[in-house]
Write a structure and sequence with these properties.
The protein has 166 residues and is of the alpha/beta class. Helix content is 24%, strand content 25%. It has four helices and five strands; from the N terminus they run H-E-H-E-H-E-E-H-E. InterPro entries: METL9.
């Protein structure tokens, strides 16, 4: 995937140093959260970088969620995450509700918009491809008590939309 992105002019950031870069206008995290070895760490780093950059995060995740770690910095043979996403429910809608209230809000993100899109992923020996359901979230970092004194004009740039779809 990195090779393909480089072909199209994308800059590939180091797996451990990306959080020290920026500023950015938008951070895109597509179908990574459920594949990351430590999703809470990733969310914390996304919050810090998006707060520092004063930007939003575009995050996609396949629902219903099925966590599987393809690469773990600590243990390359382990396919389980260091911690599990606290997502409950069995349907797409139940899991959207859970990820908003149990994952994003405790991670200091508010939802600007969200939608559901089809996601076609690589198949296997049984099927050429699989059609899954992706939940796409546009997240805005909430101001923490440390950030309350941030400039007034930045506050006026943001418009709050309560869980609208894209």
């Amino acid at each position: 995937m990195q090779w393909r992105l480089k072909q199209h002019g994308f800059k590939i950031l180091d797996i451990e140093k990306w959080k020290e870069t920026g500023p950015y206008e938008l951070i895109s995290v597509l179908n990574l959260l459920d594949r990351h070895y430590n999703p809470q760490k990733l969310l914390k780093e996304l919050f810090e970088l998006s707060s520092r950059s004063n930007c939003m995060v575009l995050l996609a995740i396949v629902l219903p969620v099925s966590q599987y770690v393809e690469f773990n910095l600590k243990n390359t043979s382990n396919t389980y995450p260091d911690n599990w996403l606290p997502i409950s429910g069995t349907t797409f809608e139940e899991q959207v509700n859970s990820i908003i209230h149990d994952v994003f809000e405790p991670s200091n993100f508010e939802i600007v918009r969200w939608t559901k899109l089809p996601y076609l992923c690589e198949g296997d020996s049984v099927r050429a491809y699989y059609k899954l359901d992706d939940a796409i979230f546009l997240l805005k970092p909430r101001k923490t008590s440390d950030q309350v004194q941030y400039s007034e004009n930045l506050e006026s740039q943001h418009v709050h939309h309560e869980h609208d779809t894209l």
